[in-house]
Amino acid sequence: MVSEYGKKLREDIWHLAEPVLESEGLELIQVECLRMKTRWLIRIYMDRDGGVTLDDCSGISNQLGDILDVHDLPPGPYTLEVSSPGLDRPLVRDKDFIRFQGCDVSVRLEEKVEGIRHFRGRLVAFREEEGRKMLVIEVASKLYHVPRDLVVKANLVYRFD
């Protein structure tokens, strides 16, 4: 469970990091802020069409490290990790669910829907139903309508065919 301070820290870092990445032609995918025993662990996931290179990660890490230090975020010692989202890219924003319709996904919910808390199937649609954003996920030829606000974690599932 992420603390309220962790959520605020994540938002603050997001607002600082996003324009830096955009200026380099990169898209900010996710910011994670984890409190470790003696320091914070800050993870930045970024992407672009054609993928992210090691030079991209190094350059963004240097820029963001300086910016975080100037803003004293997080306060005290921290470790900054910058990387591509990988094959199991997290789906965080609504536009991620829209973009990856038709792809295989793994979705974990905070409470069960039709007796299921963890779905692994094809994201058929992302739409609004009765004023609520819904994921439509096909699992074993059955469609499940999953409220977006119940999603705790969602990732693409890469298939090795």
UniProtKB/TrEMBL annotation:
The keyword Cytoplasm applies. Residues 16-88 form the Ribosome maturation factor RimP N-terminal domain. The keyword Cytoplasm applies. InterPro entries: Ribosome_maturation_RimP, RimP_C, RimP_C_sf, RimP_N, RimP_N_sf. GO terms for biological process: ribosomal small subunit assembly; translation. It is found in: Cytoplasm. Its main location: cytoplasm. It holds the Pfam family RimP_N. Keywords: Cytoplasm, Ribosome biogenesis. SUPFAM superfamilies: YhbC-like, C-terminal domain, YhbC-like, N-terminal domain. Residues 91-160 form the Ribosome maturation factor RimP C-terminal domain. One of its GO terms (cellular component) is cytosol. Gene3D superfamilies: Ribosome maturation factor RimP, C-terminal domain (2.30.30.180), RimP-like superfamily, N-terminal (3.30.300.70). Belongs to the RimP family. Required for maturation of 30S ribosomal subunits. HAMAP family: RimP. This is Ribosome maturation factor RimP. It comes from Syntrophus gentianae. The lineage of its organism: Bacteria, Pseudomonadati, Thermodesulfobacteriota, Syntrophia, Syntrophales.
